[in-house]
Specification:
- The complex is a heterotrimer.
- Chain A starts with a helix and ends in a 7-residue tail after the last strand.
- The model of chain A has no long low-confidence stretch (mean pLDDT 91).
- In chain A, 24% of the residues lie in helices and 21% in strands.
- By secondary structure, chain A is an alpha+beta fold.
- Chain B is mostly helical.
- In chain B, helix 3 packs across helix 4.
- The radius of gyration of chain B is 31 Å and the shape is elongated.
- The N and C termini of chain B lie far apart (105 Å).
- Chain C is mostly helical.
- Chain C has a domain of 248 residues: Up-down Bundle (Formate dehydrogenase/DMSO reductase fold), CATH 1.20.1630.
- Chain C has 15 helices and 2 strands.
- In chain C, strands 1-2 form a two-stranded antiparallel ribbon.
- In chain C, helix 9 packs antiparallel against helix 10.
- The radius of gyration of chain C is 23 Å and the shape is globular.
- Classes of the chains: A alpha+beta, B mainly alpha, C mainly alpha.
- The interface between A and C is large, with 50 and 49 residues.
């Protein structure tokens, strides 16, 4: 009798508190229909050619200066003395040349970065006017005709993916080439990657390339402790990468 | 009720009412359709012009090159990697309006020797010392048929 | 655009370590430092006023109206640095028509409006209504109409009506205290809720903002009371001033305790972000934190006013110490805001490097603009003190 009353009480309490918590937490669950896009990046395959970053800037009219990137590539070099050197000259757009001689290197690898299109994105949570949002397909987008340019979302993104467009004075970011997905085309960064280090796919589709990738590899996300629901899954992400 | 409230309460009701009316006219249409944003923004974002072409359009005319490529180590690579956006060429196919990037620096983006590049993923040479008597890689290596004319 | 780009290339060359490429440029500059500073002054001045009204600390009487009017003058100017900082100031109204319930920043419009209309304006109105009616009868010409309008046409000044003024004013003040906490607390929450930034993300952030706001507000009223009395060539009520300074001391101690707790906790736990923050505090924030915020803004004022609680110095010396301390506290709290806002953006979210902040002189985010926004409230204050002088109020019969 007491147990069932307690159970009933818990159910009622949680149904009352659930709408309240939905108000505050930034999670929009995947809708019933339609794809739920995710991204996979294989660090063992990235060769640091920089064509992804270059192609993205061309496709999306990103300003040329080295201060605005929708995607970029970092090189991590762990030296024998334990020091970690991280570089991203012009975001990797011009490629990389080896800067540390072989004998001093313990490990070195490239890590492409881009918007993680988080499920519980902290960036869309903080927009004061509703100018940035998660699309029904799970892509984080910006409404540039509504954005007031306050920059709060830029502060809230833990991965540094957003920037304020110097001319349009609104926020800009990776859209997973939403305009290409509509036409059945591949996002440019993935189209021009020669080693297939970057893939995307429908997380709801068990046969998609991305889900196969998740099955075959030990995947991690960046900053998991922040619980952003990041849908960018890395293979071979190591402790130095942040 | 004191006279102060008799003056203040109607004033506040008027102010709030005015605000609600103005708000009704200022809220953009389609706001709230899918969530707390302008629903039309989805379509606006989706209808941007693409700059990079669809590689199927390349195959439509250049299937002979595609066939050669498929027998090569460059098999599976998208034409757009070396030939750039290409949309202008697809729209108006002419000899001059397609990129054909080559040279040590360009090919070296992938093939220059670098400790961070796995030899399993990409073949590498030191572009500073590899056959310095030649200037451009493509003088020996046809990108669609890499060992053309060699043993 | 070209100047701006050149400036960014220069910033790029001075990056230390590795930062995400988009992090070169700080999004929030001096204008965003100003906004919490101004709303903090508002909240603090109001709390001082409410000490007299609600907590019946009568000795603070001479500063009551001054504190309220100061709060109003600064509140009117508070949105200006915010709106002028936006990429699209013309779209600022959107925050009122489609506020995003999940965003702390969205409540700015409503909390501001609420505090302005319901709390501050009403409280001042209830306090001054009788005087507006009397002045509208005494003055001639356009001022007569002005005061009539200000009284909103409620011209009954019988003792019964005046008692209603007092009663309603009291209720408003009681509502006003949590409203003042909300007005400034939400600003602290704006920073405190950003999990991406470990310099900002702490539960204590709204509380620290509040207490430093109260410190700055009390200091402002203290300084203004002395300045206004000097300009009017009247004697300062020393009992009042001593009490204001005493409350400033209490608030300073509380604020110092809270900020110390925050830092001690951070140092003790030493979690992932600790190393980069340690470098931040000892490097780029060294002078503004240890020098300006802590030493100048808290330690020296606490010791100065603390000594005055033990040793009763001569009036002239006390006044000098109060004035110096008040000014030091005002500067110190400004730098507290600076260290939070600017400091939080100087290090990379990857914890591997630092960028730089260069404060320009001209331009919409430059020093001159900031000075303009800070001078404007004093001009408005002067105007309001001319319009509704607290010392010309008629004693209630």
């Amino acid at each position: 009798m007491k147990a069932s009353a307690a159970a009933a009480g818990t159910i009622i309490l949680s149904s009352v508190t659930r709408p309240f918590s939905m108000l505050l937490i930034a999670s929009d669950p995947p809708p019933e229909e339609g794809p739920w896009w995710g991204i996979g990046i294989d660090i063992t395959k990235c060769i640091g050619c920089g064509l992804c970053a270059r192609g993205c800037k061309m496709e999306n009219s990103v300003p040329d200066e080295p201060f605005y990137f929708r995607t970029w590539v970092e090189q991590y070099t762990i030296l024998n003395n334990g020091e970690v050197k991280i570089e991203s000259p012009n975001g990797g757009i011009d490629g990389f040349t080896q800067s540390v001689p072989d004998e001093e290197i313990f490990k070195t690898f490239f890590v492409p970065k881009m918007c993680n299109h988080c499920e519980k994105s902290p960036c869309t949570q903080v927009c004061p006017v509703g100018a940035t949002y998660e699309s029904p397909e799970g892509i984080s987008l910006v409404d540039q005709t509504y954005c007031i340019g306050c920059g709060y979302c830029v502060q809230a993104c833990p991965y540094g993916c957003r920037y304020l467009h110097p001319e349009k004075k609104v926020v800009d970011k990776c859209t997973l080439c939403y305009h290409r997905l509509e036409k059945g085309l591949v996002p440019v960064c993935m189209e021009v990657c020669p080693s297939k280090a970057r893939i995307y796919g429908n997380l709801k589709d068990r046969d998609s390339e991305l889900v196969q990738f998740l099955r075959e590899h030990d995947y991690q996300v960046l900053k998991p402790h922040l619980n952003t629901g990041s849908k960018l899954f890395y293979n071979a992400l190591t402790a130095e990468v942040s | 009720m004191p006279s102060q409230l008799k003056r203040l309460i109607p004033l506040f009701i008027l102010f709030i009412g005015l605000f609600l009316v103005i708000r009704h006219f200022l809220i953009p249409e389609s706001f709230g359709q899918y969530g707390h944003y302008r629903g039309n923004s989805l379509q606006e974002n989706a209808s941007r012009e693409t700059v990079y072409a669809d590689k199927e359009d390349c195959y439509a005319c250049h299937d002979d090159i595609l066939e050669k490529l498929n027998n090569e180590m460059h098999a599976g690579l998208s034409c757009l990697i070396c030939h750039g956006p290409g949309q202008t060429h697809v729209d108006d196919p002419q000899l001059g309006n397609i990129n054909k990037e080559s040279g040590r620096e360009f090919c070296g983006r992938c093939h220059d020797i670098n400790a961070a590049r796995s030899i399993d993923v990409v073949f590498q040479v030191d572009i500073k010392t590899h056959h310095t008597e030649k200037t451009n890689c493509i003088e020996c290596h046809n990108p669609h048929d890499l060992w053309e004319g060699m043993e | 655009m070209e100047d701006h780009t050149l400036h960014l290339y220069e910033m790029l060359s001075r990056v230390e370590g590795y930062i995400y490429p988009n992090e070169i440029e700080l999004q929030w500059g001096i204008l965003i430092v100003l906004y919490p500073y101004i709303t903090g002054l508002v909240a603090g001045a109001f709390i001082l006023a409410s000490l007299e009204r609600v907590f019946k600390i009568k000795v603070l009487g001479p500063t009551y109206q001054l504190a309220l009017i100061t709060a109003l003058a600064f509140l009117i100017c508070a949105p200006l640095p915010l709106v002028s900082h936006l990429g699209h100031p013309g779209r600022a109204y959107q925050i009122m028509i489609t506020p995003h319930g999940k965003s702390a920043m969205a409540i700015f419009g409503f909390v501001y409006l609420w505090y302005l209309m319901v709390v501050l304006l009403l409280e001042i109105w209830f306090d001054y209504r009788r005087d507006f009616v009397i002045w509208s009868q005494e003055k001639k010409g356009i001022m007569r109409t002005v005061y009539r309008i200000l009284s909103l046409g409620v011209s009954d000044i019988s003792p019964k009506a005046v008692r209603w003024d007092e009663r309603l004013g009291y209720i408003i003040t009681v509502i006003g205290i949590p409203s003042a906490f909300l007005l400034h607390g939400y600003v602290g929450f704006i920073f405190g809720s950003i999990k991406a930034n470990p310099w900002w993300s702490t539960v204590l952030m709204p509380v620290i903002f509040l207490f430093s706001a109260m410190v700055s507000g009390i200091a402002l009223v203290m300084v203004l009371y002395m300045v206004v009395s000097y300009l009017r060539k009247v004697k300062i009520d020393m009992a009042c001033l001593d009490m204001v300074a005493k409350y400033l001391l209490y608030m300073l101690i509380l604020d110092f305790a809270l900020e110390s707790l925050d830092q001690v906790h951070r140092i003790y736990e030493a979690e992932e972000s600790f190393d980069i923050l340690h470098m931040l505090v000892n490097g780029r924030l060294n002078i503004t934190l240890f020098g300006m915020q802590i030493t100048l803004g808290m330690i020296i004022p606490m010791i100065s006013i603390g000594i005055l609680q033990i040793f009763k110095f001569r009036e002239k010396l006390r006044k000098t110490i109060y004035l110096m301390t008040g000014l030091m506290v005002l500067v110190g709290i400004f730098f507290m805001r600076w260290n939070v806002v600017i400091g939080g953006q100087l290090f990379s979210k990857g914890f591997h490097g630092f960028t730089n902040f260069k404060l320009g002189l001209v331009g919409s985010e430059g020093l001159f603009m900031a000075i303009a926004w800070m001078v404007l409230p004093f001009l408005i204050l002067a105007f309001l003190l001319w319009l509704m002088p607290p010392w010309k109020k008629h004693e209630a019969v």
